[in-house]
Write a structure and sequence with these properties.
Number of strands: 7
Distance between the termini: 20 Å
Number of helices: 10
Structural class: alpha/beta
Order of helices and strands: HEHEEEHHHHHHEHEHE
Strand order of the largest sheet: 3-4-5-6-7
Helix content: 25-40%
Strand content: 5-15%
């Protein structure tokens, strides 16, 4: 909140993955001492489309209602992460990658499974011949291209732990919120078919049109789509604090300028 105030932001939303616990903390604090702007209650929910893991954003939710609804749909984050990292480890071994046998014992389940395993892969130089250069250098690309892409070599099946799109969207609606589709082009080669499938089959309220990795052409495309379909427009830096140290609040990699409206 201090960072948002220092950056001069006037509207923010805290959208943690599958939890609204941050808002319990806010309820106990004198928020106005840290941030003078408006906070829209929000959440980011993991779901799947066409077997590709994606996310949706819920804005304007009743966080107390959402907290109760989450209990029947999402397992605790650390439990899910432990399952995911073990499945990813097994996929890596089956693909012929070298990993330390005891590496799972070092895993901190509060962190991303993808980031941990990608770092472990890089400890063995011989793995380079089995991994694309861009994947070797970026854990985010490792996740999107290898781990969450059904056609990727290390695709991790999580259907038993991730609800379908309609179930996730219903959580947002039952808690009084609006459903937004975030960072669509982060889904790389699957982006176009995911966007089309959602628009053809589900109701959404808005699209995140301003995102730090989008090109001007990509931003223009989704802005036009929102105008045509009368959808709300949002923007986000996807600031994750220490988890993504190269992403800054409000401006992402430094190229964002999201107007308040």
């Amino acid at each position: 909140l201090k960072g948002a105030q220092a950056r001069g932001l006037e509207v923010i939303s805290i959208t943690d993955h599958n939890t609204v616990d941050a808002y319990d903390e806010l309820a106990k604090a004198q928020v106005g001492e840290y941030f003078k702007g408006r906070i829209i209650p929000g959440i980011e929910l993991n779901t799947k489309i066409l077997n590709v893991p994606i996310e949706i954003l819920g804005y304007g939710i009743d966080t107390a209602v959402m907290k109760e609804l989450l209990k029947s749909v999402y397992p605790p984050a650390e439990e899910r992460n432990r399952i995911e990292v073990k499945r990813l480890y097994d996929k890596c071994i089956a693909a012929g990658l070298q990993l330390d046998e005891e590496c799972l014992e070092r895993y901190d389940p509060s962190g991303f499974a993808s980031k941990f395993i990608q770092a472990e892969i890089k400890k063995h130089e011989e793995n380079k011949k089995l991994i694309d250069e861009e994947v070797w250098g970026d854990s985010k690309i490792f996740y999107r291209k290898y781990m969450s892409n059904p056609e990727g070599p290390l695709y991790v099946e999580m259907d038993d732990l991730v609800p379908d799109f309609q179930t996730a969207a219903n959580l947002v609606r039952k808690s009084g919120g609006l459903v937004f589709l975030p960072h669509i082009f982060e889904y790389r080669q699957n982006a176009g078919k995911i966007l089309k499938f959602i628009l053809d089959n589900y109701k959404i309220d808005g699209i995140e049109c301003y995102y730090t990795t989008f090109s001007d052409e990509q931003t223009k495309k989704v802005l036009n789509l929102c105008r045509e379909r009368k959808l709300y427009v949002s923007g986000g830096s996807d600031y994750h604090g220490r988890a993504k140290p190269d992403v800054q609040m409000g401006i992402g990699h430094g190229n964002l300028n999201i107007e308040d409206n």
